[in-house]
Amino acid sequence: MNYKKGILGIWIVALLVMLAGPLKAQTEGNTDTTLSPYFFVKSDDPEVDQLPLKSTRADVSISGVIADVRVTQVYKNEGKRPLEAIYIFPASTRAAVYGMRMTIGERIITAKICEREKARKEYNQAKKAGKSASLLEQQRPNVFQMNVANIMPGDLIEVELKYTELLVPTDAVYGFVYPTVVGPRYVDQPANESGFSEHWTGNPYLHEGKLPTYTFNISVDISAGLPIKEVTCTSHNIHVDYQGPDLASIKLDPSEKQGGNRDFILKYRLAGKRIETGLLLFKGDEENFFLLMLQPPKRVVENQIPPREYIFIVDVSGSMHGFPLNISKKLLKDLISKLSPRDRFNVLLFAGGSHLLSAHSLPATPSNIQLAADTIDRQRGGGGTRLLPALRRALDLPKTEGYSRTVVIATDGYVAVEEETFDLIRKNLGRANIFAFGIGSSVNRHLIEGMARVGMGEPYVITKPEEAPQQAEKFRRLIASPVLTGIKVDFGKFHVYDVEPLSIPDVMADRPILVFGKWKSKPRGKITLRGFSGNHPFVTRLDISKTKPLETNAPLRYLWARHRIALLSDYNRLKFDDERVKEVTSLGLTYNLLTAYTSFIAVDNRVRQKNGEMVTIKQPLPLPQGVSDYAVGGRSFSKTALDRFSRTPMMALQKQGVREGEYPASAAPSESKGGIGIQLGDMIIKGELSEHEVRRILNRHLRSIEACFNNVQGRHQSITKKLVISMLIDVQGKVINVKLNKGGKRKGSMEKCMTEKLKRLRFPKLKSGENAVVTVTLILN
To answer: The domain spanning residue 447 has which CATH number?
Structure first.
């Protein structure tokens, strides 16, 4: 009887979802039980504009090594009801956001920097009072959230934000990257177990291949100070206009107006492959700032390098399905196939779980290399992205005596555990060098660059398949031998303080050494850099008296503060400290910078509507180019999403006009082309296992279970609508017995396959010391 009631309830809710569709015009009071991303389904309600963001534009000015960026977002309400728009967008990992303003018609409101909680409180008060307001918050160092309240019907509101960043060349190539879209993040916990800072991950996405609903444009002006050559853009079609030897203007081709689904990547060299070096000074009213850039020696010949051990960690989760995973396969096969015979290696594949090629690292013999290539080739991509357990497992592998270990990670970085990952790497610095490859058109650069930074390695980003061999070769050259080690900087008579970084790690590539800081008194004397290049000492000196403070170097105050904030935040992830939080907050307020604890708030004091009622819209984001629906979960069923709609008021559901068959990703049935899909139905558990944990484990393996049906599909004319299975689970979490009901005609090989698959599942250990029984209904589609 309980089965019938449970199944009936689930189908009633599913029917409501199909008839009414999910609520995309959500009020702030509605809460989801999951933080997972979901697919956008447009309502047919003509009174609500579901796509308020109309355009985003970036105007970039590069002077020497400093880029100043102005981003303009245009919101318009083409519906008949007041709106609040919420938009999640990325920025550079090095961005120092220092200003914002809001324009409504001819009214311009300059934003102020406030403590985060105070800013949000002021925003909510303005929203409730019927005033137009905008709020800019940092969710990650490279992920921001814009809220714009009380966009009245017919309103056109522009929100402009400004940031600056430092351009650091690698191998004499300067690169400017403008990230365009935040990829979907996998969150392995329900909303009620997560902090408010994680709630941005529950965002709507368009289906794969769908272009952005807003237009995109970018222009870049370069004043390099030295002759420019080889300006290229690997991501978009551009037009380059050289206005002088050291001046270039870059415009986006009109055909790219919907190119906001992939990062804009601009690269250029200076004549003679030179790198801008020297000293930049800024003299302020209260503080003076400097930036030291010193060119290291050229790469030395490999000499007495110890044998290497490589652990390759490969992301095979749902977001890597298709294009990103194909690039990863190409990259890994290229790296592994060219290992030295004296090298050793291992491969760890991860999604929701992980699979290790071998318990111990293998010699790089032809047969072992072929084994690794075959293992990687079989991957298709599916499931969640659980990076932390995979990284822990790799670092815990037995180390080969006498070998230098290097860990190479290939992922798109679509996870929400950046801080925990950085912590783990920091705590294991002595166990391995860590290099990260970001795979895809819009990777999580905060994670990729952060892993490399804390691991004393280098980040790599591959956006196209043809880039894989080039990046693999670049990686091999990089690790052949470090450029400079044992680095020390002596400032002599130049009085400096608050210098960052305190120590300089080994330089692994042809890139300048950067030192930030403040100075006082008159700049004089010489700065000396010492280190070792191969087995030889290296010394270079810079005469300070030849450098004059310039007003154009004013961004140095923001760059120094941003660097200091990043350092404090990194330490705070290791061990939370209220004093460091206060210091980060103080730096944000003092230098007018967006941080984790400070936000920008702009409020128009005019009351534009009296009742304060409006519809809140989460602006849907395009999936990054080349990323499939698997990244959002469009091939799996989640009960939490169905639960969300079962609690939605009936009248609210009936107001939606979604066409039948359009599901949110997290509530959609699992798909198998030409075959059977499975949903998890009613469940009864006897024992201490939680239903949430059981459903999570089963959902991760639904595609594997589906295969048991689809492999024998053609042999039967009759298909059962549902199947009830019972599993006996011992105290170690192992499935020791499986029973299937005999409903329908699928028997024999299907039953055997199901039993084998289910017996491979592993559940949490039972502390009670008693076995558990899980009975679950599978609904077949």
So the answer is: 3.40.50.410
